């Protein structure tokens, strides 16, 4: 590399024979050439500098709770050179290599997990607990409103967000009538009920 102007992180000795690079970074990697010259002639020699680094976390795992049956991706990302390999332990035993994904969590997936990032310069660890939850539907955490006011011709939204694991099936009814999606009624993915163009007929329980 031609060090003109010379970087602040580099120093060349008074004789010019020694190049020192401090706080070396990946961008310092490359081919360096030293040229010597006097009145009898000149010669030069080149050498390649490889910059490598021990693993460092970009994103590590943390204690996590997830519903049974849910999909789950647990990111565990490290940087370094050579690029670190990722492997997993569960309850102290070898479990997986690479990216960890669950398509449908089971109770037995609960446990203490350890993500290990490793290259030739060392390894780092990250530990966390995964809890897979089973819970019958309850409105204790998100109780429904007892009354919802809506203007005639307007819009009404009634939230229905029970805590449950796995995700419960939501059914809405008015009196003995089971409500389904229509031009005026829409049941959201989270279970909430939306009524548009409200009329007096919509009043009730």
UniProtKB/TrEMBL annotation:
Please give one Gene Ontology molecular function term for this protein.
Answer: cell-cell adhesion mediator activity
User: Can you name a GO cellular component term?
Assistant: axon
Q: Which Pfam families match?
A: I-set, Ig_3
- Write out the GO biological process terms: axon guidance; brain development
Taking the first listed entry, what is the main subcellular location of this protein, grouped into a coarse class?
Answer: membrane
The subcellular localization recorded is:
Cell membrane
Q: How does it sit in the membrane?
A: Lipid-anchor; GPI-anchor
| Matches recorded under SMART domains | IG, IGc2
- Every copy of the Ig-like domain together lies at 55-131, 137-205
Q: Which UniProt keywords apply?
A: Cell adhesion, Cell membrane, Disulfide bond, Glycoprotein, GPI-anchor, Immunoglobulin domain, Lipoprotein, Membrane, Repeat, Signal
PROSITE patterns in UniProt: IG_LIKE
Entry protein name: Ig-like domain-containing protein
List the top taxonomic levels of the source: Eukaryota, Metazoa, Chordata, Craniata, Vertebrata
């Amino acid at each position: 590399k031609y060090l003109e102007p010379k970087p602040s992180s580099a120093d060349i000795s008074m004789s010019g024979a020694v190049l020192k690079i401090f706080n070396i970074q990946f961008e310092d990697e490359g081919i360096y050439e030293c040229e010597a010259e006097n009145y009898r002639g000149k010669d030069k020699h080149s050498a390649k500098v490889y910059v490598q680094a021990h693993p460092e976390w970009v994103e590590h795992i943390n204690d996590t709770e997830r519903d049974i049956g849910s999909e789950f991706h647990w990111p565990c990302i490290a940087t370094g050179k050579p690029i670190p390999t990722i492997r997993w332990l569960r309850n102290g035993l070898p479990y997986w290599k690479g990216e960890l994904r669950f398509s449908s969590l089971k109770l037995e997936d609960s446990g203490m997990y350890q993500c290990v990032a490793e290259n030739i310069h060392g390894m780092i660890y990250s530990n966390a607990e995964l809890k897979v939850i089973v819970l019958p539907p309850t409105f204790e955490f998100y109780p429904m409103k007892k009354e919802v006011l809506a203007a005639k011709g307007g819009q009404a939204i009634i939230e229905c967000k029970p805590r449950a694991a796995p995700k419960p099936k939501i059914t809405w009814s008015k009196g003995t009538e089971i409500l389904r999606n229509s031009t005026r009624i829409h049941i959201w993915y989270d279970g909430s009920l939306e009524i548009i163009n409200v009329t007096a007929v919509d009043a009730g329980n």
